[in-house]
Design a protein that fits this description.
Helices cover 61% and strands 6% of the residues. By secondary structure, the protein is mainly alpha-helical. The strands form 5 sheets. The chain has a 5-stranded parallel β-sheet with strand order 8-9-10-7-11, with helices on both faces. Strands 1-2-3 form a 3-stranded antiparallel β-sheet, covered by helices on one side. The chain has a 3-stranded antiparallel β-sheet with strand order 4-6-5.
């Protein structure tokens, strides 16, 4: 019969084909407690004590019932019984294996199914053979017992295994193993095989320096092999240890062996017997059990299988990703599926690269791997490099799969890798291991939404997740696609079948205890993140310690937005080059994501953890100084973008040095090749700027808030129709009024007027321009007056008031001349040209627009060029110059499309449709009006909707 249950090492359950996972620490402890008393009734109170020790909760009865239900499912599946639905039947569904018997439960285990029982049966047979001096039988029975031994019993179930009852049982099994090994050595000595015993006894004596039995037999084996001096050395070492540590002399058996060596007594002659050919050692197979709920990762798994089964030169394969993303689960999943390709075994080791207790060393791991491959302990070199050479030699002709889990860095695994040959190495790490020579990288991102849904359905039931789709979506968002978080959530829901998903979704609200909720037993998202962070914070490398500070400051102050090295440099008060290096360190450790070049962002859960670290480990003074530095940087950056996008004739005055947050390092600002680049930057950074305005208001920094809002002028050049700029300006105005910031209010009136004018809210535009003009006139600011008068000319043009438009345009031109602003004077030419067009002086308007267009070409101001081309095309229509008109309109439309300017595109389409209508091209006019109408409705461009409907109504009926 196949051994089904394993206690001699980590707990396992076997279904006759392969080990089956027993997930959940409580279920594993429950099974172990029942197996330790297999066939006997275990009281409920005993099981509760096993699960919770002295801290049994009030809900223990219900929780115990839930754990028993999960255990019954595992037992049923291991017996080949399919269990549908949530729960396994109470008893009969598992063939009566786990029964309810007052006052508790009884686990039925058949003869030969529990490895500990089979082990003890073999040990008893070895003892009987030893008592009868049946020396050939003793090693045979002992070897049969040792083949079941996988390590210290219940090794994976601390602290349960350390409690009184389990600890006594573990001690009994350990002692039985050592006693049997002594009996086997007695038999080998009686059979005259002392030469063969020396390596084994040397190892056993070293592992048990106070166990006299192994030392006594080693003395005899050495002496009978002609190594009398070494035998004396063994005696004296044992005696010294016993005297120093226990204050006692060696016992009678050791003293007798010592006398035998001293007397030079002859060794017993070996009995001749035919030596059977030794069976080849079974290849090591050390892969952990695979989790039962592994879901998704099909592309990555396929890539790994292909890499590990390809007939190609050796290259290590590295699976990297943030803590909790499922690296180990994927590696184990794939390793199980390629095991047949590695007939010489599979070696697995958790390198503990991020454990608080420290990483495992190559020195100790090489000793274990070499021993697993059959190299005797006494043959191991003391030097790590020499062990690595021996390991490579051992792998040279073998096809072994190495799975090295949780590596800290490339140096951590370098000595453990083959130099070539048919073996393979699959490595998991939170680091990219970019410096590992020849490595193939398989990075892991969070699970796709469909895989998240499938995983939760497997863990807590398909019907349950189907009933609450909104709560399910909230839970998946809160978990951020992290398998570890999803497993915790699924486990909680499975153990609490009465809970609605909405209850857990509420507990997972960000920054309201979400990280504390994502913990179950020893599985803890926060602790997983802490391993990476603490390793970096406490590193010996200054760059890593500095990166840890960047992690917590970014998390506390700016976690919600992607950052660039330039913005990060301002936040940290370092150079851009240093900031880039720090961000790369964090990205390499998967503490930051790098979704696109030079932009870095937090995973949502990591951002929340980083915020906690920043709150606890950074002083309020340092946090305030850092946030003022990044706000100051955004003030300057949006100002630069606005200037590049609009060519504005006057920019707001800069912040004074004191108001910039006290940074000592000169800041680096983004550079823009043209207005398109500046506008795209502004659109991408809009969410960050919006939060910056709010934060500036909370800090009482009106001077920053209004400059940020005003600086979005460039964004509004093509995105005015979204209403986002209006909202920012209104918010900044509230802040400026609350702080009685007159300069800020004046600049906001200027820009609010522009926002209203772009949206054709002409009366509101005139009101704000009037307020702004009054303020800047009192200040004697010629540049501001010139700009505002030019804007007044523009709004009067929209109102088709040619006289007022011309008056204000000429006043603006004169002020620009007085202040020596040639660029401003050139820009006002377009206003005057529009006036000529409005009064029907098309020839004069066309001449002036050609001058404007020539000035704008090559300037990088594509928005103004498109605007000028649109007006020029409309003038050419009035001059009956059809082809030239459509050429200008087509060029303008191309610019608008390229810049993703929906409002400008609608403007251009209106003029194009009018041109088609003017030239009697009804089909083209209809198509253009309909295209414009669709665009205007999609983006709520009210004025353009009205114009399109009127234009369509003016067309003759189709077909005429």
């Amino acid at each position: 019969m196949v051994v089904k249950f394993g206690l001699l090492g980590p707990l396992v359950v076997h279904d006759g084909t392969e080990p089956r996972p027993v997930t959940g620490p409580k279920v594993r402890i429950l099974l172990a407690a029942l197996l330790l008393d297999a066939g006997r009734t275990v009281p409920r109170d005993t099981l509760k004590a096993a699960l919770w020790g002295d801290s049994v909760p009030a809900s223990a009865d219900a929780s115990l019932a839930n754990h028993l239900t999960r255990l019954r499912r595992v037992l049923a599946e291991s017996d080949g019984i399919t269990v549908t639905g949530r729960a396994a039947p109470a008893d009969g569904g598992t063939g009566g294996r786990l029964r309810t018997v007052a006052p508790g439960y009884r686990l039925h285990v058949r003869e030969g199914e529990l490895d500990a029982d089979v082990f003890e049966t073999r040990i008893r047979a070895a003892r009987r053979a030893h008592e009868r001096e049946e020396w050939e039988a003793v090693p045979r029975e002992t070897a049969a017992a040792m083949s079941l031994w996988r390590g210290t019993p219940l090794a994976d179930l601390a602290p349960f295994s350390e409690t009184e009852g389990p600890a006594l049982r573990v001690h009994q099994l350990l002692e039985a193993r050592l006693q049997a090994l002594e009996w086997s050595c007695d038999a080998e000595l009686h059979l005259g095989r002392h030469h063969d015993l020396i390596p084994q006894l040397t190892t056993l004596a070293a592992e048990h320096p106070l166990r006299e039995g192994f030392h006594q037999r080693l003395m005899l084996a050495l002496y009978r092999s002609g190594r009398q001096a070494e035998a004396f050395s063994v005696f004296h070492r044992l005696r010294r240890n016993l005297v120093d540590q226990l204050g006692t002399e060696p016992g009678a058996a050791v003293q007798q062996a010592h006398q035998e060596v001293l007397a030079g007594a002859p060794a017993p002659r070996p009995r001749p017997r035919p030596r059977p050919r030794p069976e080849p050692a079974r290849p090591p197979f050390q892969l952990p059990c695979e989790g039962e709920a592994f879901t998704g990762r099909e592309p990555e798994a396929a890539a790994l299988r292909s890499l590990l089964t390809a007939d190609a030169p050796f290259r290590p394969v590295v699976v990297s990703g943030m803590g909790g993303v499922g690296k180990t689960a994927l590696a184990v999943h794939v390793a199980h599926r390629v095991r047949e390709a590695y007939p010489d075994g599979a070696l697995f080791a958790d390198l503990r690269g991020y454990c608080v207790g420290g990483a495992r060393t190559a020195h100790e791991l090489l000793a274990r791997f070499l021993s697993d491959l059959g190299v005797h302990h006494d043959s191991l070199p003391d030097d790590t490099d020499d062990r690595a050479l021996l390991f490579r030699t051992a792998l040279a002709e073998r096809r072994v799969l190495l799975v090295l889990d949780n590596a800290r860095n490339a140096a951590h695994v370098a000595a453990l890798l083959p130099a070539g040959g048919p073996s393979a190495a699959l490595i998991t790490s939170r680091q990219l291991l970019a410096d590992l020579p020849g490595a193939v990288k398989v990075p892991l991102a969070p699970l796709a939404e469909s895989d998240q849904h499938a995983l939760l359905a497997r863990l807590c039931g398909e019907e349950r997740v189907r009933r609450e789709p909104e709560a399910l979506a909230d839970i998946m968002t809160a978990c951020g696609g992290l398998p570890l978080a999803l497993h915790i959530v699924g486990g909680r829901l499975a153990s609490r079948p009465a809970w609605p998903l909405a209850l857990l979704a509420k507990r997972l609200t960000p920054h309201q205890g979400r990280l504390e909720t994502l913990a179950m037993g020893t599985v803890d998202v926060q602790r997983t993140f802490a391993m990476s962070y603490v390793a970096m914070r406490d590193s010996d490398e200054p760059l890593e310690r500095e990166a840890a500070r960047a992690f917590r400051l970014l998390g506390r102050l700016w976690a919600g937005h992607p950052v660039t090295p330039q913005a990060t440099a301002a936040l940290l008060d370092v150079t851009e080059v240093r900031a880039a290096a720090l961000l790369d360190v964090l990205a390499d450790a998967h503490l930051l994501l790098d979704p696109e070049p030079d932009r870095y962002a937090f995973h949502d859960l990591l951002g929340e953890y980083a915020a906690q670290r920043g709150e606890e480990e950074e002083t309020p003074e340092d946090r305030r100084a850092a946030v003022l530095r990044i706000l100051s940087w955004y003030v300057e950056a949006v100002g630069a973008a606005s200037l590049a996008a609009t060519g504005e004739t006057q920019s707001p005055p800069p912040l004074d040095a004191e108001g910039r947050g006290g940074g000592l390092t000169p800041v680096s600002l983004p550079e823009f090749a043209d207005d398109d680049e500046a506008i795209r930057w502004s659109a991408r950074e809009l969410p960050a700027v919006q939060d910056a305005i709010t934060l500036a208001g909370e800090l009482g920094r009106s001077d920053m808030a209004w400059r940020l809002a005003v600086g979005l002028f460039g964004y509004a050049a093509t995105h005015w129709w979204t209403g986002e700029w209006d909202a920012c300006l209104e918010q900044a105005m509230e802040i400026a009024r609350a702080r009685d910031d007159r300069l800020g209010q004046a600049w906001l009136h200027r820009r609010m007027a522009v926002a209203h004018g772009m949206a054709f809210r002409n009366d509101a535009c005139l009101e704000h321009l009037g307020t702004a003009l009054e303020f800047f006139t009192r200040r004697g600011d010629l540049a501001a007056r010139a700009s505002i008068l030019g804007n007044l000319a523009a709004v009067y043009l929209q109102m088709e008031d040619a006289d007022q438009a011309l008056v204000h345009a000429e006043l603006s031109r004169d002020l620009y001349r007085m202040s020596g602003n040639a660029r401003g004077e050139a820009m006002i030419l377009s206003r005057i040209a529009e006036v000529r067009k409005l009064v029907g002086a098309f020839d004069l308007a066309a001449t002036e627009f050609r001058r404007v267009i020539d000035l704008l070409r090559g300037s990088g101001h594509w928005v103004f060029l498109a605007t000028a081309l649109t007006s020029y095309g409309d003038i050419l229509r009035g001059l009956e110059r059809r082809d030239e008109a459509f050429a200008a309109l087509s060029e303008a439309l191309g610019i608008r499309h390229r810049m993703n300017d929906h409002g400008g595109t609608a403007d251009c389409l209106v003029f194009t449709a009018r041109a088609h209508h003017h030239f009697g091209e009804w089909t083209e006019a209809r198509t253009t009006w309909e295209t414009c109408l669709e665009l205007a409705r999609k983006h709520h461009l009210t004025k353009r909707i009205d114009e399109c409907l009127a234009g369509l109504a003016d067309l003759p009926p189709a077909g005429l």
